[in-house]
Amino acid sequence: MVGYTVEKEYGGMIDAYEKAGGDKSVLQTKDVAKLVVHENRVLANDPVKGLRIDTEETKSGVSVKLTVEKGTKVPHPVHLCFGLLPKEGLQEIIMKVDAQDNSEISVIAHCIFPNAVKVRSSTRWTPTLKSGLTPVSIIKKRTITARTAASRLFPRPRSR
Asked: Do 109 and 137 form a contact (C-beta atoms < 8 A)?
């Protein structure tokens, strides 16, 4: 994209997050796992011990795989900051989560589109289910919580 550098994009994303009421220090400390993505570029990828954040940039966004290793309890919420600074654009995020046995993770997703006029964004979350497990048993064996602006929980148990 013309006119933006990685430093400017990162600074723009952090500033927009702060202007929206977020605490920018969580996106600047090494104690908190984070992923910051502008359009289809990964600007920051800072995991913590026991958490892997694998990314692949795609034409229209990023494919992400979060792996919480067996027995890992991530102490602070993981911050996922996705967004676009320009007025127009497309961002598609494919998110796969593999929370292994006896692991816990809490995820807060920030969606930053401060100048949006014609922006399209989508995020698809997919948990990795082992044979014989259902979303309800995943919640019993592992804790995966994700919050967005709408404070939605993921995965949600399905009624039968």
From this structure: no
pLDDT at residue 139, rounded to an integer: 40
CA-closest candidate to residue 68, choices 46, 49, 51, 47: 51
CA distances from 158 to 75, 134, 141 (A): 27, 9, 16
The residues with which 121 forms a beta bridge, in sequence order, are 91
Query: Using one digit for the tens of pLDDT, what is the confidence trace for 47-101?
Result: 999 999 999 999 999 999 999 898 888 999 999 999 888 989 999 999 888 888 8
- The pLDDT assigned to 153 comes to 30
Mean pLDDT check: name the lowest of 20-34, 55-69, 144-158. Answer: 144-158
Domain ranges of the chain: 6-147
Q: In what order do the strands lie in the sheet with 78-83?
A: 41-46, 34-38, 78-83, 104-112, 143-147
CA–CA distance, 51 with 31 (Å, rounded to integer): 12
Strands 78-83 and 104-112: parallel
User: Which pTM does this prediction carry?
Assistant: 0.76
In the beta sheet, which residues pair with residue 103?
none
Contact 81, 34 (CB under 8 A): yes
Nearest to 35 by CA among 122, 85, 124, 95: 95
